[in-house]
Amino acid sequence: MNRFYRNNTVFFLFLFLLLLVKIPILNLPYHWDAMGYEIPYAMAIKSDNFDLVPEDVFNDTGQPVLFPLFLAIVFKLCGAKSLVGHFVVIVFSSLSLFYVYLLGKFLKSRKAGFIAASLLFFFPHFFSLTGIVSKINILTTFVIISVYYGLKCNKGRFLIAAICLVLSNHSGMYFL
Predict the structure, then answer these.
(1) Which one, of 40, 153, 145, 55, lies nearest residue 102 by Cα?
(2) C-beta contacts of 9-16 below 8 A and 24+ residues apart
(3) Closest listed residue to residue 140, CA positions, set 121, 159, 114
(4) What pTM, to 2 d.p., does this model score?
(5) Residues 114 and 14 sit within 8 Å (Cβ to Cβ)
(6) How far apart (Å, rounded) are the C-alpha atoms in residues 104 and 144?
């Protein structure tokens, strides 16, 4: 099996595992920042023809736009249901696990990558945030992706991941 198919298999394995354990939360209503900021901002972007500074959201234009914009696009394509929002977070969490695996594989071995991804999977903070629609999930994903491509000296992909990191959360610039 070539590397592309093996890597896709690993990613979908992580996605399947997260979906399997997070099925009970997929239809739960939003709470915390999702209900107060993330979802209203995404809905306003969607309803205002993707204006990144919609007028009907609180006058706070200093928030990063990547996660609400991505949610708005997905909501436009799939509908604005809590199932969709939670699924987006699970996909980003799967990407985090996948890139931790790739990072461990790059630094040591495939076994080390699986152990590292397993440790992250069972880390309580990561596991609980996997069920919450929050920009922290996308921040975690792009931190890991940036580190991976930075260590691999892939400047183009590092730059893309780093830009996404900064656009996902204010604190993203501190990781660079």
Answers:
(1) 145
(2) 10/98, 10/101, 11/94, 11/95, 11/98, 14/94, 14/97, 14/98, 14/101, 14/117, 14/121, 15/90, 15/91, 15/94
(3) 121
(4) 0.85
(5) no
(6) 11
Q: Which two tokens stand for residue 124?
A: 């309580």
Q: Where are the domains of the chain?
A: 3-175
Q: Quick one: tokens of 123?
A: 């880390």
How far does CA 156 lie from the centroid of its chain?
Answer: 20
Taking all residues of the chain, what is their mean pLDDT, rounded to a whole number? 83
CA distance 139 to 63: 13
Helices (H), the chain: 3-22, 33, 39-47, 66-78, 82-107, 110-122, 124-129, 135-151, 155-168
Q: Hey, what are 106's tokens?
A: 């790059």
Say what the pLDDT of residue 3 is: 65
Q: For residues 124 and 110, what is the distance between their CA atoms, to the nearest angstrom?
A: 24
Q: What is the pLDDT of residues 65-89, one digit of tens each?
A: 888 888 888 888 888 888 888 888 8
